Amino acid sequence: MSSLLKPSFRLAAAAIMISGFVRIGNLKIDAFIQSQYGGHSQYLTIQGLWIAVATMILGVLLSIFSFLNFLRPLRRYLFVTAMPLSVVISSIYWTLLVFFPHLIVASIQQPGAPSSSSEAPAPFYLPLSIDLALHAAPAIALATDFFAFESKYTEKEVRTAVPTIMVAYTLFYSSWVEFCATKNDGNFPYPFLTISPPGVRLLIYAGAGVLGAVSFRVLNSLHSRPQ
Question: Which regions span the lipid bilayer (predicted)?
């Protein structure tokens, strides 16, 4: 039973996340997203979701097929990307949704489905199950996987690999979302970016990158299983 727990957990986590993304296609918001340059790839939520899914699925394969052990370092570095992103996404999204929903939910006035945010415009109303699958499941699943099944990262990895990956991803995402905005009449996927001048957006990108790196260091320090 113990040998089945790890792949079963990872497969279930991946299925929940994939289900959340697939069900977006049933909402009116999907048509708006698809009409924008960059589509779903503009959203850090979606990028983080797919990296988390890839991390989980690779973990399933490694749990079942021992001859794939040469891919274990790849999963470790995927995890270093996925975990900080999930923390950034969850912490920013839920904080803004609860206290400042107009900063995280775009104002497109079309009829839509009920949402976990009663103040959100209709097309961006996400059913709570989808909201949780997109904005909570990755962080919860990755944290559980880390403490239950994975070994602690070395100090060298935390000191060098994590900041390097976070800087690289911050540069990639900020460049991509800024480029998409030039194609979308200056509109960003998140309202708090749309209303922010360039200097403030730069601080937001940098702050998110720092949050990701610091959060991983904190989580790793709480891990008791040695490398």
Answer: 12-29, 49-71, 78-104, 124-149, 161-179, 199-219
